[in-house]
TrEMBL record:
HAMAP family, per the entry: Kynurenine_monooxygenase
Protein name as it appears in the record: Kynurenine 3-monooxygenase
SUPFAM superfamilies, per the entry: FAD/NAD(P)-binding domain
Gene source species: Hymenobacter endophyticus
Catalytic reactions on record: L-kynurenine + NADPH + O2 + H(+) = 3-hydroxy-L-kynurenine + NADP(+) + H2O
Primary gene name: kmo
Protein backbone atom coordinates (compact mmCIF):
# COMPACT_ATOMS: atom_id res chain seq x y z
CA UNK A 1 0.00 0.00 0.00
CA UNK A 2 1.47 3.31 -1.06
CA UNK A 3 0.42 6.76 0.02
CA UNK A 4 -0.57 9.17 -2.72
CA UNK A 5 -1.11 12.88 -2.21
CA UNK A 6 -4.65 14.11 -2.65
CA UNK A 7 -4.74 16.90 -5.20
CA UNK A 8 -8.09 18.43 -4.25
CA UNK A 9 -9.15 19.86 -0.94
CA UNK A 10 -12.69 18.43 -1.22
CA UNK A 11 -13.22 14.74 -1.90
CA UNK A 12 -16.49 13.48 -3.34
CA UNK A 13 -17.05 9.72 -3.06
CA UNK A 14 -19.48 8.48 -5.74
CA UNK A 15 -20.01 9.79 -9.25
CA UNK A 16 -23.71 8.92 -9.49
CA UNK A 17 -26.42 11.48 -10.10
CA UNK A 18 -26.08 13.31 -6.81
CA UNK A 19 -22.27 13.08 -6.67
CA UNK A 20 -21.96 14.74 -10.09
CA UNK A 21 -24.36 17.55 -9.25
CA UNK A 22 -22.76 18.12 -5.86
CA UNK A 23 -19.29 18.33 -7.47
CA UNK A 24 -20.55 20.98 -9.88
CA UNK A 25 -21.99 23.05 -7.05
CA UNK A 26 -18.81 22.76 -4.95
CA UNK A 27 -16.61 23.73 -7.90
CA UNK A 28 -18.81 26.76 -8.65
CA UNK A 29 -17.96 27.96 -5.15
CA UNK A 30 -14.31 27.95 -6.17
CA UNK A 31 -13.29 24.66 -4.53
CA UNK A 32 -10.93 22.05 -5.91
CA UNK A 33 -12.86 18.78 -6.08
CA UNK A 34 -11.60 15.25 -6.54
CA UNK A 35 -14.40 12.86 -7.49
CA UNK A 36 -13.95 9.09 -7.07
CA UNK A 37 -16.24 6.60 -8.80
CA UNK A 38 -16.14 2.83 -8.43
CA UNK A 39 -17.44 2.04 -11.92
CA UNK A 40 -15.57 2.54 -15.18
CA UNK A 41 -16.50 5.60 -17.22
CA UNK A 42 -20.02 4.70 -18.43
CA UNK A 43 -19.55 7.01 -21.41
CA UNK A 44 -17.02 4.56 -22.84
CA UNK A 45 -19.74 2.01 -23.48
CA UNK A 46 -21.01 3.64 -26.70
CA UNK A 47 -24.37 5.35 -27.25
CA UNK A 48 -27.13 5.13 -24.67
CA UNK A 49 -27.99 1.46 -24.37
CA UNK A 50 -31.26 0.03 -25.66
CA UNK A 51 -32.64 -0.98 -22.30
CA UNK A 52 -32.38 2.21 -20.33
CA UNK A 53 -33.75 2.49 -16.86
CA UNK A 54 -35.62 5.73 -16.44
CA UNK A 55 -36.51 8.01 -13.60
CA UNK A 56 -39.20 10.60 -13.05
CA UNK A 57 -37.70 14.07 -12.68
CA UNK A 58 -39.88 16.74 -11.09
CA UNK A 59 -39.72 20.33 -9.85
CA UNK A 60 -37.20 19.90 -7.04
CA UNK A 61 -34.84 18.12 -9.40
CA UNK A 62 -35.27 20.73 -12.14
CA UNK A 63 -34.60 23.52 -9.69
CA UNK A 64 -31.31 21.92 -8.63
CA UNK A 65 -30.27 21.37 -12.25
CA UNK A 66 -31.14 24.97 -13.09
CA UNK A 67 -28.85 26.11 -10.27
CA UNK A 68 -25.84 24.94 -12.27
CA UNK A 69 -27.34 25.81 -15.65
CA UNK A 70 -27.91 22.30 -16.99
CA UNK A 71 -31.70 22.02 -16.94
CA UNK A 72 -32.13 22.91 -20.61
CA UNK A 73 -29.64 20.27 -21.72
CA UNK A 74 -31.55 17.65 -19.75
CA UNK A 75 -34.97 18.85 -20.93
CA UNK A 76 -33.96 18.00 -24.51
CA UNK A 77 -33.86 14.31 -23.65
CA UNK A 78 -36.81 14.23 -21.24
CA UNK A 79 -40.37 13.12 -22.01
CA UNK A 80 -43.23 14.94 -20.26
CA UNK A 81 -45.71 12.75 -18.42
CA UNK A 82 -48.88 14.77 -17.77
CA UNK A 83 -50.63 12.21 -15.56
CA UNK A 84 -51.23 8.62 -14.59
CA UNK A 85 -52.82 6.28 -17.11
CA UNK A 86 -54.44 3.42 -15.24
CA UNK A 87 -54.97 0.10 -17.06
CA UNK A 88 -57.68 -2.19 -15.69
CA UNK A 89 -57.82 -5.97 -16.12
CA UNK A 90 -59.99 -5.60 -19.25
CA UNK A 91 -57.48 -3.20 -20.84
CA UNK A 92 -59.76 -0.22 -20.05
CA UNK A 93 -57.98 3.10 -19.47
CA UNK A 94 -58.51 5.92 -16.98
CA UNK A 95 -56.40 9.06 -17.07
CA UNK A 96 -55.73 11.18 -14.02
CA UNK A 97 -53.74 14.39 -14.52
CA UNK A 98 -50.91 14.95 -12.05
CA UNK A 99 -51.53 18.63 -11.54
CA UNK A 100 -52.92 21.65 -13.31
CA UNK A 101 -52.54 22.11 -17.07
CA UNK A 102 -48.86 22.46 -17.92
CA UNK A 103 -47.66 20.60 -14.83
CA UNK A 104 -45.85 17.39 -15.66
CA UNK A 105 -43.18 15.07 -14.39
CA UNK A 106 -40.48 13.98 -16.83
CA UNK A 107 -39.14 10.60 -17.81
CA UNK A 108 -35.34 10.68 -18.19
CA UNK A 109 -32.88 7.89 -18.78
CA UNK A 110 -30.73 7.31 -15.71
CA UNK A 111 -27.69 6.42 -17.81
CA UNK A 112 -28.28 9.30 -20.24
CA UNK A 113 -28.57 11.78 -17.39
CA UNK A 114 -25.48 10.41 -15.64
CA UNK A 115 -23.47 10.62 -18.88
CA UNK A 116 -24.54 14.18 -19.54
CA UNK A 117 -23.62 15.15 -16.01
CA UNK A 118 -20.22 13.44 -16.25
CA UNK A 119 -19.54 15.45 -19.43
CA UNK A 120 -20.28 18.64 -17.56
CA UNK A 121 -18.26 17.58 -14.54
CA UNK A 122 -15.22 16.86 -16.70
CA UNK A 123 -15.48 20.20 -18.48
CA UNK A 124 -15.65 22.04 -15.17
CA UNK A 125 -12.36 23.60 -14.12
CA UNK A 126 -11.54 22.52 -10.59
CA UNK A 127 -12.97 18.98 -10.78
CA UNK A 128 -10.81 15.89 -11.27
CA UNK A 129 -12.70 12.65 -11.93
CA UNK A 130 -11.17 9.28 -11.14
CA UNK A 131 -12.98 6.17 -12.40
CA UNK A 132 -12.47 2.56 -11.31
CA UNK A 133 -11.78 3.75 -7.78
CA UNK A 134 -13.56 1.83 -5.09
CA UNK A 135 -13.52 3.06 -1.54
CA UNK A 136 -12.88 0.06 0.72
CA UNK A 137 -12.62 1.76 4.05
CA UNK A 138 -12.56 5.20 5.60
CA UNK A 139 -10.29 5.91 8.55
CA UNK A 140 -12.07 8.81 10.21
CA UNK A 141 -9.34 9.48 12.78
CA UNK A 142 -6.46 9.62 10.31
CA UNK A 143 -8.68 11.13 7.60
CA UNK A 144 -7.61 8.55 5.07
CA UNK A 145 -9.36 6.50 2.42
CA UNK A 146 -8.38 2.99 1.47
CA UNK A 147 -8.97 2.91 -2.27
CA UNK A 148 -8.86 -0.03 -4.66
CA UNK A 149 -8.15 0.53 -8.33
CA UNK A 150 -10.57 -2.00 -9.84
CA UNK A 151 -8.61 -2.19 -13.10
CA UNK A 152 -5.15 -2.84 -11.68
CA UNK A 153 -6.31 -4.26 -8.31
CA UNK A 154 -3.82 -1.91 -6.66
CA UNK A 155 -4.63 -0.52 -3.27
CA UNK A 156 -3.55 2.85 -2.05
CA UNK A 157 -4.22 5.25 0.78
CA UNK A 158 -5.58 8.67 -0.04
CA UNK A 159 -5.74 11.39 2.60
CA UNK A 160 -8.74 13.70 2.65
CA UNK A 161 -9.47 17.03 4.26
CA UNK A 162 -13.21 17.09 3.68
CA UNK A 163 -15.17 14.10 2.42
CA UNK A 164 -18.66 14.02 0.87
CA UNK A 165 -20.23 10.55 0.94
CA UNK A 166 -22.56 10.30 -2.06
CA UNK A 167 -21.89 6.63 -2.70
CA UNK A 168 -25.49 5.48 -2.64
CA UNK A 169 -27.70 3.30 -0.45
CA UNK A 170 -24.87 0.89 0.46
CA UNK A 171 -22.39 3.68 1.17
CA UNK A 172 -18.86 2.82 2.27
CA UNK A 173 -18.48 6.27 3.81
CA UNK A 174 -21.61 5.73 5.92
CA UNK A 175 -20.35 2.36 7.12
CA UNK A 176 -17.38 4.15 8.72
CA UNK A 177 -19.77 6.56 10.47
CA UNK A 178 -21.85 3.57 11.62
CA UNK A 179 -18.96 2.49 13.81
CA UNK A 180 -18.86 5.81 15.66
CA UNK A 181 -20.56 6.41 19.00
CA UNK A 182 -24.23 7.43 19.04
CA UNK A 183 -24.73 6.94 15.34
CA UNK A 184 -28.34 5.91 14.61
CA UNK A 185 -29.01 3.60 11.74
CA UNK A 186 -31.96 1.59 10.47
CA UNK A 187 -32.77 -0.24 7.29
CA UNK A 188 -36.16 -1.65 6.44
CA UNK A 189 -36.98 -3.83 3.47
CA UNK A 190 -40.41 -4.18 1.91
CA UNK A 191 -41.71 -7.70 1.30
CA UNK A 192 -41.79 -6.66 -2.33
CA UNK A 193 -39.11 -6.85 -4.96
CA UNK A 194 -39.03 -5.27 -8.41
CA UNK A 195 -38.13 -6.45 -11.85
CA UNK A 196 -37.48 -4.36 -14.91
CA UNK A 197 -39.18 -5.37 -18.16
CA UNK A 198 -39.75 -3.76 -21.55
CA UNK A 199 -42.66 -2.71 -23.74
CA UNK A 200 -41.19 -2.63 -27.22
CA UNK A 201 -41.51 0.31 -29.61
CA UNK A 202 -44.22 -0.02 -32.24
CA UNK A 203 -43.38 0.07 -35.96
CA UNK A 204 -41.37 3.14 -36.97
CA UNK A 205 -40.20 3.85 -33.40
CA UNK A 206 -43.67 4.94 -32.32
CA UNK A 207 -45.05 4.51 -28.80
CA UNK A 208 -47.47 1.58 -28.55
CA UNK A 209 -49.33 3.18 -25.63
CA UNK A 210 -49.81 6.86 -24.72
CA UNK A 211 -46.41 8.49 -24.76
CA UNK A 212 -47.01 11.39 -22.37
CA UNK A 213 -48.16 9.46 -19.32
CA UNK A 214 -46.87 7.28 -16.55
CA UNK A 215 -48.73 4.00 -17.00
CA UNK A 216 -49.95 2.00 -14.03
CA UNK A 217 -51.52 -1.44 -13.86
CA UNK A 218 -52.78 -1.34 -10.24
CA UNK A 219 -53.74 -4.76 -8.94
CA UNK A 220 -54.24 -4.40 -5.21
CA UNK A 221 -51.32 -6.33 -3.75
CA UNK A 222 -48.96 -5.60 -6.64
CA UNK A 223 -48.61 -3.38 -9.69
CA UNK A 224 -46.68 -2.71 -12.86
CA UNK A 225 -45.68 0.74 -14.08
CA UNK A 226 -44.20 1.95 -17.38
CA UNK A 227 -42.26 5.11 -18.26
CA UNK A 228 -41.64 6.20 -21.86
CA UNK A 229 -38.25 6.19 -23.58
CA UNK A 230 -37.21 8.38 -26.50
CA UNK A 231 -36.89 5.38 -28.84
CA UNK A 232 -40.60 4.44 -28.54
CA UNK A 233 -40.10 1.72 -25.95
CA UNK A 234 -41.23 1.83 -22.33
CA UNK A 235 -39.29 0.77 -19.30
CA UNK A 236 -41.68 -1.27 -17.13
CA UNK A 237 -41.22 -2.16 -13.51
CA UNK A 238 -43.15 -4.95 -11.85
CA UNK A 239 -43.46 -4.42 -8.08
CA UNK A 240 -44.36 -7.82 -6.75
CA UNK A 241 -44.34 -9.72 -3.43
CA UNK A 242 -41.42 -12.09 -2.89
CA UNK A 243 -43.71 -14.72 -1.39
CA UNK A 244 -47.45 -15.47 -1.29
CA UNK A 245 -50.18 -16.50 -3.76
CA UNK A 246 -49.20 -14.09 -6.57
CA UNK A 247 -45.48 -13.61 -6.10
CA UNK A 248 -42.01 -14.14 -7.50
CA UNK A 249 -42.04 -17.46 -5.65
CA UNK A 250 -45.03 -18.72 -7.66
CA UNK A 251 -43.77 -17.66 -11.11
CA UNK A 252 -41.10 -20.26 -11.79
CA UNK A 253 -41.50 -21.14 -15.46
CA UNK A 254 -41.88 -19.13 -18.70
CA UNK A 255 -45.35 -20.63 -19.20
CA UNK A 256 -46.44 -19.49 -15.72
CA UNK A 257 -45.18 -15.97 -16.41
CA UNK A 258 -47.01 -15.68 -19.71
CA UNK A 259 -50.22 -17.13 -18.29
CA UNK A 260 -50.06 -14.69 -15.36
CA UNK A 261 -49.39 -11.61 -17.50
CA UNK A 262 -52.12 -12.66 -19.93
CA UNK A 263 -54.56 -12.85 -17.06
CA UNK A 264 -53.62 -9.72 -15.08
CA UNK A 265 -51.95 -7.41 -17.62
CA UNK A 266 -53.73 -8.56 -20.81
CA UNK A 267 -53.21 -5.35 -22.80
CA UNK A 268 -49.50 -5.21 -21.94
CA UNK A 269 -48.59 -8.82 -22.71
CA UNK A 270 -48.72 -8.54 -26.54
CA UNK A 271 -46.39 -5.52 -26.33
CA UNK A 272 -43.78 -7.44 -24.35
CA UNK A 273 -42.27 -10.01 -26.75
CA UNK A 274 -39.14 -10.36 -24.59
CA UNK A 275 -41.12 -11.01 -21.41
CA UNK A 276 -40.15 -14.63 -20.82
CA UNK A 277 -36.44 -13.97 -21.38
CA UNK A 278 -36.36 -10.73 -19.42
CA UNK A 279 -38.31 -12.12 -16.50
CA UNK A 280 -35.71 -14.79 -15.86
CA UNK A 281 -32.59 -12.88 -16.94
CA UNK A 282 -33.23 -9.56 -15.23
CA UNK A 283 -32.52 -9.57 -11.52
CA UNK A 284 -35.21 -9.29 -8.85
CA UNK A 285 -34.10 -6.31 -6.79
CA UNK A 286 -35.13 -5.40 -3.25
CA UNK A 287 -36.68 -2.21 -1.91
CA UNK A 288 -35.21 -0.59 1.15
CA UNK A 289 -35.64 2.50 3.31
CA UNK A 290 -32.45 3.58 5.06
CA UNK A 291 -32.41 6.18 7.81
CA UNK A 292 -29.40 7.33 9.73
CA UNK A 293 -28.15 10.23 11.80
CA UNK A 294 -25.98 12.25 12.19
CA UNK A 295 -24.95 12.75 8.59
CA UNK A 296 -21.89 14.78 9.51
CA UNK A 297 -18.71 13.89 11.34
CA UNK A 298 -17.30 17.15 12.73
CA UNK A 299 -16.50 19.37 9.76
CA UNK A 300 -14.76 16.50 7.97
CA UNK A 301 -17.44 14.23 6.53
CA UNK A 302 -20.96 14.73 5.21
CA UNK A 303 -23.42 12.22 3.72
CA UNK A 304 -25.90 13.26 1.01
CA UNK A 305 -28.28 11.57 -1.42
CA UNK A 306 -29.12 7.88 -0.98
CA UNK A 307 -26.12 7.43 1.32
CA UNK A 308 -27.96 9.59 3.87
CA UNK A 309 -31.58 8.73 3.04
CA UNK A 310 -32.46 5.89 0.68
CA UNK A 311 -36.21 5.61 0.09
CA UNK A 312 -38.53 3.30 -1.82
CA UNK A 313 -39.26 4.58 -5.34
CA UNK A 314 -43.05 5.06 -5.23
CA UNK A 315 -43.17 8.83 -5.15
CA UNK A 316 -40.42 9.21 -7.75
CA UNK A 317 -38.52 11.43 -5.32
CA UNK A 318 -35.23 9.66 -4.42
CA UNK A 319 -33.08 11.44 -6.99
CA UNK A 320 -35.14 14.62 -6.67
CA UNK A 321 -34.52 14.64 -2.92
CA UNK A 322 -30.80 14.06 -3.47
CA UNK A 323 -30.72 16.91 -5.97
CA UNK A 324 -32.57 19.09 -3.47
CA UNK A 325 -29.83 18.28 -0.94
CA UNK A 326 -27.47 20.05 -3.37
CA UNK A 327 -29.77 23.09 -3.60
CA UNK A 328 -29.88 23.40 0.20
CA UNK A 329 -26.13 22.88 0.60
CA UNK A 330 -25.53 25.52 -2.06
CA UNK A 331 -27.66 28.02 -0.11
CA UNK A 332 -25.67 27.27 3.05
CA UNK A 333 -22.38 27.70 1.18
CA UNK A 334 -23.59 31.12 0.08
CA UNK A 335 -24.56 32.02 3.64
CA UNK A 336 -21.60 30.65 5.58
CA UNK A 337 -18.67 30.60 3.14
CA UNK A 338 -15.96 28.32 4.50
CA UNK A 339 -17.47 27.67 7.92
CA UNK A 340 -17.87 23.97 7.17
CA UNK A 341 -18.78 22.95 10.71
CA UNK A 342 -21.76 25.28 10.65
CA UNK A 343 -22.71 24.36 7.09
CA UNK A 344 -22.72 20.63 7.88
CA UNK A 345 -24.68 21.08 11.09
CA UNK A 346 -27.32 23.31 9.56
CA UNK A 347 -27.57 21.03 6.56
CA UNK A 348 -28.39 17.93 8.56
CA UNK A 349 -30.73 19.81 10.89
CA UNK A 350 -32.64 21.28 7.95
CA UNK A 351 -32.75 18.17 5.82
CA UNK A 352 -33.27 15.26 8.20
CA UNK A 353 -36.94 15.95 9.14
CA UNK A 354 -37.74 16.47 5.49
CA UNK A 355 -36.10 13.34 4.14
CA UNK A 356 -37.72 11.35 6.97
CA UNK A 357 -41.10 12.71 5.87
CA UNK A 358 -40.26 11.83 2.27
CA UNK A 359 -39.41 8.27 3.32
CA UNK A 360 -42.87 7.95 4.91
CA UNK A 361 -44.56 9.52 1.88
CA UNK A 362 -42.85 7.05 -0.43
CA UNK A 363 -44.19 4.04 1.46
CA UNK A 364 -47.65 5.66 1.67
CA UNK A 365 -47.73 6.23 -2.08
CA UNK A 366 -47.07 2.56 -2.76
CA UNK A 367 -50.46 1.75 -1.30
CA UNK A 368 -52.08 4.53 -3.30
CA UNK A 369 -50.53 3.44 -6.58
CA UNK A 370 -51.00 -0.30 -6.36
CA UNK A 371 -54.42 -0.26 -4.77
CA UNK A 372 -56.34 2.97 -4.27
CA UNK A 373 -56.01 4.34 -7.83
CA UNK A 374 -58.16 1.42 -9.00
CA UNK A 375 -61.02 2.49 -6.69
CA UNK A 376 -63.68 4.74 -8.29
CA UNK A 377 -64.36 6.42 -4.92
CA UNK A 378 -60.72 7.35 -4.65
CA UNK A 379 -60.69 8.79 -8.18
CA UNK A 380 -63.82 10.76 -7.34
CA UNK A 381 -62.07 12.09 -4.22
CA UNK A 382 -59.14 13.22 -6.39
CA UNK A 383 -61.52 15.07 -8.72
CA UNK A 384 -63.22 16.76 -5.79
CA UNK A 385 -59.84 17.73 -4.38
CA UNK A 386 -58.86 19.43 -7.60
CA UNK A 387 -62.15 21.36 -7.50
CA UNK A 388 -61.39 22.47 -3.95
CA UNK A 389 -57.93 23.49 -5.03
CA UNK A 390 -59.39 25.57 -7.89
CA UNK A 391 -61.93 27.21 -5.58
CA UNK A 392 -59.50 27.85 -2.71
CA UNK A 393 -56.10 28.10 -4.41
CA UNK A 394 -54.55 29.90 -1.43
CA UNK A 395 -55.66 27.26 1.03
CA UNK A 396 -55.49 23.93 -0.74
CA UNK A 397 -52.87 22.24 -2.84
CA UNK A 398 -53.21 18.46 -3.33
CA UNK A 399 -50.49 16.52 -1.50
CA UNK A 400 -49.06 15.14 -4.73
CA UNK A 401 -48.61 18.68 -6.05
CA UNK A 402 -46.97 19.85 -2.83
CA UNK A 403 -44.43 17.06 -3.12
CA UNK A 404 -43.95 17.10 -6.86
CA UNK A 405 -44.65 20.61 -8.11
CA UNK A 406 -43.41 22.75 -5.23
CA UNK A 407 -40.31 23.24 -3.15
CA UNK A 408 -42.22 23.30 0.13
CA UNK A 409 -40.21 21.28 2.67
CA UNK A 410 -41.32 17.64 2.50
CA UNK A 411 -42.28 17.58 6.21
CA UNK A 412 -44.66 20.52 5.73
CA UNK A 413 -46.12 18.93 2.63
CA UNK A 414 -46.75 15.68 4.51
CA UNK A 415 -48.38 17.46 7.48
CA UNK A 416 -50.58 19.56 5.17
CA UNK A 417 -51.50 16.47 3.19
CA UNK A 418 -52.58 14.59 6.29
CA UNK A 419 -54.69 17.54 7.46
CA UNK A 420 -56.33 17.75 4.03
CA UNK A 421 -57.01 14.02 4.04
CA UNK A 422 -58.87 14.39 7.34
CA UNK A 423 -61.07 17.07 5.75
CA UNK A 424 -61.73 14.81 2.77
CA UNK A 425 -62.80 12.03 5.14
CA UNK A 426 -65.42 14.39 6.58
CA UNK A 427 -66.53 15.68 3.20
CA UNK A 428 -66.69 12.57 1.04
CA UNK A 429 -69.66 10.90 2.82
CA UNK A 430 -71.75 13.80 1.43
CA UNK A 431 -70.55 13.28 -2.12
CA UNK A 432 -71.66 10.43 -4.37
CA UNK A 433 -70.86 11.99 -7.74
CA UNK A 434 -68.88 14.92 -9.09
CA UNK A 435 -71.94 17.20 -9.34
CA UNK A 436 -72.61 16.86 -5.61
CA UNK A 437 -69.70 19.22 -5.07
CA UNK A 438 -72.00 22.15 -5.86
CA UNK A 439 -74.69 21.11 -3.38
CA UNK A 440 -75.27 23.84 -0.77
CA UNK A 441 -74.57 21.55 2.23
CA UNK A 442 -71.27 20.43 0.72
CA UNK A 443 -70.25 24.01 -0.04
CA UNK A 444 -71.26 25.06 3.45
CA UNK A 445 -69.27 22.28 5.07
CA UNK A 446 -66.30 23.15 2.95
CA UNK A 447 -66.54 26.84 3.80
CA UNK A 448 -66.52 25.93 7.51
CA UNK A 449 -63.46 23.73 7.08
CA UNK A 450 -61.67 26.42 5.10
CA UNK A 451 -62.38 29.05 7.75
CA UNK A 452 -60.04 27.10 10.07
CA UNK A 453 -57.19 26.97 7.54
CA UNK A 454 -54.66 29.72 7.28
P1 LIG B 1 -26.49 6.38 -6.64
O1 LIG B 1 -27.28 6.72 -7.84
O2 LIG B 1 -26.64 5.01 -6.06
O3 LIG B 1 -24.96 6.65 -6.98
C1 LIG B 1 -23.93 6.24 -6.11
C2 LIG B 1 -22.63 6.20 -6.90
O4 LIG B 1 -21.56 5.86 -6.02
C3 LIG B 1 -22.64 5.13 -7.99
O5 LIG B 1 -22.16 5.68 -9.18
C4 LIG B 1 -21.75 4.04 -7.45
O6 LIG B 1 -21.06 3.32 -8.46
C5 LIG B 1 -20.78 4.82 -6.58
N1 LIG B 1 -20.24 4.03 -5.45
C6 LIG B 1 -20.92 3.20 -4.64
N2 LIG B 1 -20.09 2.66 -3.72
C7 LIG B 1 -18.86 3.16 -3.97
C8 LIG B 1 -17.58 2.97 -3.35
N3 LIG B 1 -17.42 2.14 -2.32
N4 LIG B 1 -16.51 3.64 -3.86
C9 LIG B 1 -16.68 4.49 -4.91
N5 LIG B 1 -17.86 4.71 -5.54
C10 LIG B 1 -18.93 4.04 -5.07
N6 LIG B 1 -35.72 8.73 -7.95
C11 LIG B 1 -36.43 9.72 -8.53
O7 LIG B 1 -36.24 10.91 -8.21
N7 LIG B 1 -37.39 9.45 -9.47
C12 LIG B 1 -37.69 8.17 -9.85
O8 LIG B 1 -38.57 7.96 -10.68
C13 LIG B 1 -36.95 7.11 -9.24
N8 LIG B 1 -37.22 5.84 -9.59
C14 LIG B 1 -36.50 4.83 -9.01
C15 LIG B 1 -36.81 3.51 -9.35
C16 LIG B 1 -36.13 2.46 -8.76
C17 LIG B 1 -36.49 1.06 -9.14
C18 LIG B 1 -35.11 2.74 -7.81
C19 LIG B 1 -34.35 1.62 -7.16
C20 LIG B 1 -34.79 4.04 -7.46
C21 LIG B 1 -35.49 5.10 -8.05
N9 LIG B 1 -35.23 6.43 -7.72
C22 LIG B 1 -35.94 7.44 -8.28
C23 LIG B 1 -34.20 6.77 -6.71
C24 LIG B 1 -32.88 7.16 -7.35
O9 LIG B 1 -32.43 6.14 -8.19
C25 LIG B 1 -31.85 7.43 -6.26
O10 LIG B 1 -32.40 8.22 -5.25
C26 LIG B 1 -30.64 8.14 -6.84
O11 LIG B 1 -30.03 7.34 -7.82
C27 LIG B 1 -29.65 8.47 -5.72
O12 LIG B 1 -28.50 9.03 -6.28
P2 LIG B 1 -27.12 8.94 -5.53
O13 LIG B 1 -26.15 9.62 -6.42
O14 LIG B 1 -27.28 9.38 -4.12
O15 LIG B 1 -26.79 7.37 -5.44
Amino acid sequence: ISSVENTGNLTVMGGGLVGCLLSLYLARHGHQVELFERRPDIRGAGPVEGRSINLALSDRGWRALEGVGIAEAVREVAIAMHGRMMHDTQGGLTFQPYGQAGQSIYSVSRAGLNRRMLDLVEQEPGITVRFNQQCRRVDLKRQELEMLDTETQQERVVPYQRLFGVDGAYSAVRSALQRTDRFNYSQEYLNYGYKELTIEAAAGGQWAIERNALHIWPRGQYMMIALPNLDGSFNCTLFFPYEGPDSFATLQTPAQVTEFFGRVFPDALPLMPQLETEFFENPTASLVTIRCFPWAEQDHVLLLGDAAHAIVPFYGQGMNAGFEDCTILNELLHQHGHDWGRIFQEFEALRKPNTDAMADLAVYNFQEMRDRVADPRFLLQKKIESKISAQYPEKWLPLYSQVTFSSLPYAEAWANGQAQERIMQRLMPHIQQEEDYQRPEVQQLLAQEMAHRS
